[in-house]
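WARN retry 2 of 3 for item q-0093 after timeout on previous attempt; input resubmitted unchanged.
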Amino acid sequence: MNALVLSCLTFFILCLPPLFGEKGAQDNWYLDREVKLPEMPGFRKPLGVKIDASGKAFVVDTDNDTITIWDQNGSFLRRIGSNGSGNGSMSDPVDIEVTNNEIYVIEKGNHRVQVFDINGAYLRKWGSYGTADGQFRSPRSIALDLNGSRVSEVFVADWDNHEVQVFDANGSFLRSIGGQGNGNEQFQYASGVAIGPDGLLYASSRSNNKIKVFETNGTYVRSFSTSAHPTDLDFHGDKLAIGNGSYHKIKIFDKNGTELNSIGSGSSSSAPGEFNHPYGLSYAPNGELHVADSENHRIQVFDANGSFLRSYGTYGQAGVAPFGLHITPENNFLITDISRHRVFEIDENGTFVRLIATQGSGDGQVTNPRSVFLGPDNRIYVADTSRHRIQIFDRNGTFIRKFGVNGTSDGEFRDPNAVIVSADNEIYVADSSNHRIQVFDANGSFLRKFGSHGSLEGQMNNVYGIAFSDLGNLMVADWHNRRIIHFTPSGQFIRHYTTHDHPKLIHNLPHGLTAVSRDSKMDIYDANGERLRRWNKVGNTSSAFDTYADGTIAWLDYNYDKILFYRPTYRTVRRPISKEIPLPEVLNVVQHESTNHLQVTYRVNDADSSKVEAKMIAFIDGGNDLSKVIIPTTFVGSIAGKLDQNVSTNQNHTITWNVGADWNVGFGELEVAIMAKDDRDLLNLHFLTLPVTDSNASTLQINRSPVTDSDLLDLWYWLLASGESGINLEGSSIKPIVTGSAPNFIPNQVSDMIVWLDANNVDGDGQSNNDPFGNTIESWSNLVDPDHNFTQSNVSKRPTLTNSILNGKPGVFFDNDNDGMSSGLQINSAPYSVVVLFNCLDQASQSRRAVQGSQNWLIGPHGGRVGFHTSNGWVSNREYLIKDKFYLCTALVDSSSSALIVNGIDRTQNSNSRYHPGSLHLAASGGHSSEDLNGYICELLVYNRKLNDSEVSQIETYFTYKWNMVRSYVDGSSTTASGRRYLFDKMNLREASEEEVNRAKNGAISGSINQFTPSLQIGPGDRPNKVNEYGFDTGGSGTWVTPK
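OK item q-0093 returned
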C-alpha cells in the first residue's frame, strides 16, 4: 500500500500585513512645477508677409516651415505650425493672406493651400501635386477677393503650371486663368497675385517681366512692364508695390503701370533700407510697407514715400535645443541653445526677455554655445565652444569683449565647455580638449592653468562641467575618466571620486551634496562621493540644469521644451487594503484496496465567491520542485464540478485518481495538493496607481510587492495541472513547445551589430557553403563587416567545416591542437553583447575557450563549467559542462553591470565584472593554446551595445527555430526572463522597467515640504525593508509588473 502524505498547497496568497502610519526618510525630490520655454523669434528665409487690420504682421518663415506673428511694434507674439505634411504642418510656406478670422497659407513644398483660424488651429486644406484642375506645381502667391468681410474667391499663382487658379473659400475649383506662353493671357511663371482697388486681378509673370491685369472672371484687360522679374505685389490705395527679388529692389507703380518710386540700390546688402532677395510685401492700414527681406532674414518697414523706418526679426531657427542653464538672482533663466546657436533669457514664468547672442562668427555671435554664467559683476559670460572663445556681455545683452582663440598655448582654447566666475571675479574655463582648467582676470587676461591629459591624480580626460562647492573649491566633471575632481581655487589637487556614468554637468546642492547629470540621468552624491539617488527621465536628452539654495533642481527637458522643478521632500506610509482569496484544503486521501486508485476529499473555503476553479497536482516523495511533479489526468468517474471552472466553495468534494495510469513507478510516497483560484488574475496582485510625478505625463500602475520565483513556480504548477498546450515538462525544466514557422527575424535587424559568423554561410555569399565539408577554413566571413573576417593563416591551425552538427546544420570544428581564428576587431570599452553557440567534446574537468579576448576575457567551458570571465573576475561559472551538449551563451555588459545567460537562464553571479575583451578571437587564438576548444562553434553574434530583454528574447527565439536550441522557461525553481514574459503575457502584464520601479520606490507628490538635511539621507544599500507613502514595498526584491 502506498504511504501518502496529506498536505494543502495554498496557491495564491500575496496578502500583506497591516502597515502602520509612520514617517520615513527618503533621499528624494518631487516634481513641483513645470515652465514651458517660449516660442522663439527668428527667421530663416522669410518669403511672405501680411499685415492685418489691427497692424499685426503675419510672416511666412519659409525655411523654419512656420508662420510667425508680430505686433505693430515688431515684438514677437507667437508661432504657428511646424515641418511636415500632415494637417497643420507645413513644407516651404511662401505666401499668406489674413482675414478677420482666418489665415490662408500657400505651401510650395506640399503643393497646397491650408486654412487656419486666427489662433492657428487647422481648419481645412486643398491641392496636391499635378497639372489637373485644383492641383498645383510649386504655388507661389495667394490673394483673396472679399465681399465685405466674407471671402468670395481665392486666387493662387501656380508657378510651374504658369496659371492663376481660382477657388471658392472652401477650396472648390472654379476656373483657371492663363497658361504657359508669351501671349497677353499667358504667363511665364506666375509669381504673384493681388486684387486691386478697382476690383481687377493683378498677376505677375516673372520671366515676361510683366504685370498682367484681368477681370476676376479671367477676361484680359491690359499689361505693363516692370523691367525686372516681378514677384509678390500689394496695393495701398492706387499705389502698387512689387517685389523684384533677383534685383534686390522694391518698385512702386500706380495701378496703370506708371513707375512712381523704387526702394533699394539694386545691389545685395544687409544695410538698413537695402535688400538681399526681397520677395513678399504687404501694406499696413497706415500706409507703411513691410518687406520680407528673405536672405537677410528680417522684415523691413518703410513709410509711404519709401524711406526706411525700422526692421524686426533676426536669423534664428524654430524650437530650442538647450544645453546650458543658469539661474539669475531675479529667478530668470539664461539658456544656451546649441542647435540654433544662440543665447537668450526668459523670466521665471517662461516669458521671453531678450536675445543675447545669435549665430555667427562676429562679436556677440556664437556657434555651439555650451555654457552661460552671470558673474558677481552682473556681466554675462558665454562659452562660445566651437569658436574656441569666451564672450562677455553686459546685463542687457550688449557685447563687451571676447578672449581666446583655437590653440594649446596659455589663453587659447580647444572646445571650452564651461565658464564660471568666482566671488572675486576670476573667470574659470573648462578647456575641454586641452584637458585643463584655465583662469583669467575680469578683463580676460591669463592668470594660471592646472590639469593635463591623463588619468592620474590631478589629470583630466575631456573636461565638461565645473562648479564651486560649499567650501569654495572647484569641482570638475572629468568625462572620460568617469570621476569628479576637487581642486583648490589655486589649482591644487584635493581628491576625486568615481561616478556611475560619464559626468557631463555638475552643480552644488546644500549640505555637501552634488548633482551630476549626463543626458537623461541625474545622480546625487554626498560629500564622500557616495551616490544617494539616481533618476532617469526617459526620452529626455538634455543635461542642462541649475540648482537653488534650498536644494531645488531646475532641469531642462529637451524633448518638451520646458524646465522641470524638483524640490526635496519626505514621505508618509499608508495602510494597504487586503482581499479575501480562495483557500483550498485537502481533508482526506485514501487508497482503494487492491488498486492504484486514490480517493481525495477536499474543499475550497472562500468568503466572497460561490464558485472557483480548482486543479490537482502531486509531488513524488513530497518534494516541492518540478522534477518531482506528477500531473493527474486519469480519473475514475466524473470530475465535473470538482476539478474544473465550476467548483462550489465551502463544501466537500471527492474525486478518485487512477495513480497507476499517470505514475508508472507504482510505489513510493506522493504529496497531493489542490489549487484554486477565483475570478481574479493568477497572481492576485494588488496594483497601486501612482500620480504624475516625473516628466512622463501619465499615471503608473504597478504591483505593491515584488513577484518572487516562489510565486511564479506556483503559476507553473497551475498551468501544468491545467494542461497548458504551449509548454512541456522535461525533468526539472519547463520548455516551450516550438510549433509553426520561424518568425521573420534575422539578428542584424537588431541595431549596432559588428560581428555575425554563421556556419551555414562561412564564405559570406548568402548561399550554401562552397567549401566541401571536411575542408579546413582559412577565413570565416563576418556577414556584417567584411573588413573584419575571422582568419587563420597557419594551415595546421585552421578549423574544419563539418556537416550536420546540430539540427541538420553545419558547425566549424576547432580541435584540441591549437585551432583558432582572429579578426583584428577590437572592443575596448563597454557596452557590448556577445552571443555564441558552441559545444565541447572534452570531459567536464577540462578548461577550454569558445570566444576569448586579449584582456583575459573568455566565454566557454572552463574548469568543467560554462562561464564568462573578464579581467575583473568571473561574471558566472556555475553552469556545469556536459560533454557534447550545445550551449547558447549571451554575455551582456554596459558601464554599470554585466550578465551571462546560458540556454535562456540567467546565470549571473557577479554583475560588477564588466571589463572589455580587447581583440576578439575564436577558440585558441590569442595566446591560450593550452585551452583550445575541442568542439564546434555554430554561430557568433557581437553588438557594440548592451541588448535589452526584448532583443535577447528575439535572438533566443531565432536560435530556437534555427538550431533547435529550445530555451527553458523554468530551470529548477527559477523562472527565466523568457518564462516571465510567457506568464505575464497570459495576464496582459509586462515587466516594469527599472525607471518605473525607481519611480514607484522614490516618487513623490506635492504636500508637506521638509528642508533636505544630511540627517534624512539614506545611502545606497542602507534602504530599510519598508514601504513608502504609496504603500510600495521599497525594500523587497523580485519582479514588479505593470498592465500592458
